[in-house]
Design goal:
Blueprint lengths: L2 H12 L4 E4 L6 H17 L7 H5 L2 E4 L10 E4 L5 H14 L5 E4 L6 H5 L8 E6 L9 E5 L5 H13 L5 E3 L8 H17 L5 H10 L1 H4 L5 H8 L1 H11 L11 H8 L16 H24 L12
Parallel strand pairs: 1-2, 3-4, 4-5, 6-7
Antiparallel strand pairs: 5-6
Helix pairs in contact: 1-2
């Protein structure tokens, strides 16, 4: 169980659910429990818990036995991004679960329809895409595959709302879903600008922080165009769209980063360099910032402008 699985478990515990978490290495049990407790402590400070962290941790069963999932009401899979491994797990789960129990996969890009192939009851498999940190972020995508049944999508949307998320429903299966397709389109353009010498990594991060980063939590792109005037965007699109990057290959300089072991905070270098101390500091600040953004988005919910009594 990695960071995402730990964070998802903490989110479910925070809402009062009984959780059976399957881990392949129980030697990590104390570490995992400590991490989950720290996540619950963060939410306790924010007033987001249904009970005390101590009592909520008592709702957790941590096991390496898949058979302990018999009788659960929902399974959330968050193993490695490998189609064959996920399909094998779904085969095993279908031998354990009642036919109407939803299996939700936390894949961030694999089309759900690919994962439904070979299942006895493919209608109960849907995507449930979380964002890190999963216990804090309000983001969630519920993704329908070609064979997913709408009643299960409705159940997941309702559950996600009860977890404090603002879920988006992806009604037709597509690789990358909503947020990743939007994000990677932006990243592709950023890589193009760096590769062609128009800007540095620092320049692009600075521009995105101080423009997109200023309004994105308040309004998505379509609401923002409404706020600032749709006609102006049409004019810009006519000239800009033909010049945007259409690259289909990852730039060589980015592949070289990875091949040379520059993977970001975990290795001490990526697009930027880090010491052990600054890497830990960036991780701490990211959690703090995520909590502050969550508070701000609670003050300004997606429909804030439709509430005439909202200041």
């Amino acid at each position: 169980m990695g960071l995402m699985g730990t964070s998802i478990t903490a989110c479910l515990l925070a809402c009062g659910h009984e959780v059976v978490a399957v881990c392949t290495d129980l030697n990590l049990e104390s570490v995992l429990r400590n991490n989950m407790r720290s996540f619950l402590d963060q939410l306790a400070v924010e007033g987001k818990l249904s009970d005390s962290p101590v009592k909520l941790m008592n709702h957790l069963i941590l096991t390496d036995d898949l058979f302990r999932l018999q009788g659960v009401g929902l399974v959330i899979e968050c193993i490695t991004e490998d189609i064959a491994e996920k399909q094998q797990l779904f085969t095993e789960l279908e031998e354990l679960l009642a036919t109407d129990i939803i299996i939700a996969t936390n894949t961030s890009a694999i089309p759900i329809s690919h994962l439904q192939f070979g299942m006895k009851y493919p209608g109960r498999l849907l995507g449930l895409h979380w964002a890190e940190p999963a216990h804090i972020s309000k983001f969630m995508e519920v993704i329908c595959g070609d064979y997913s049944e709408s009643k299960y999508a409705d159940q997941l949307m309702n559950l996600a709302t009860s977890w404090g998320k603002e879920p988006a429903l992806v009604r037709k299966d597509i690789r990358g879903f909503i947020s990743n397709r939007m994000m990677y389109a932006m990243i592709r353009e950023g890589l193009y600008l760096v590769e062609q010498g128009y800007a540095t990594v620092e320049d692009i991060d600075r521009a995105c922080r101080n423009d997109l980063g200023q309004w994105m939590t308040f309004a998505g792109p379509f609401r923002f165009m409404d706020l600032t005037g749709v006609s102006a965007y049409v004019k810009v699109m006519e000239g800009l769209f033909p010049e945007l990057s259409q690259a289909e290959q990852v730039p060589v300089f980015m592949k070289n980063l990875v091949s040379q072991g520059h993977n970001g905070l975990s290795t001490g270098s990526g697009f930027y360099n880090y010491t052990a101390e600054t890497a830990a500091n960036w991780e701490r600040l990211f959690i703090n910032f995520s909590l502050e953004i969550r508070r701000l988005s609670d003050v300004y919910p997606q429909d804030a402008g439709d509430r005439l009594n909202h200041d």
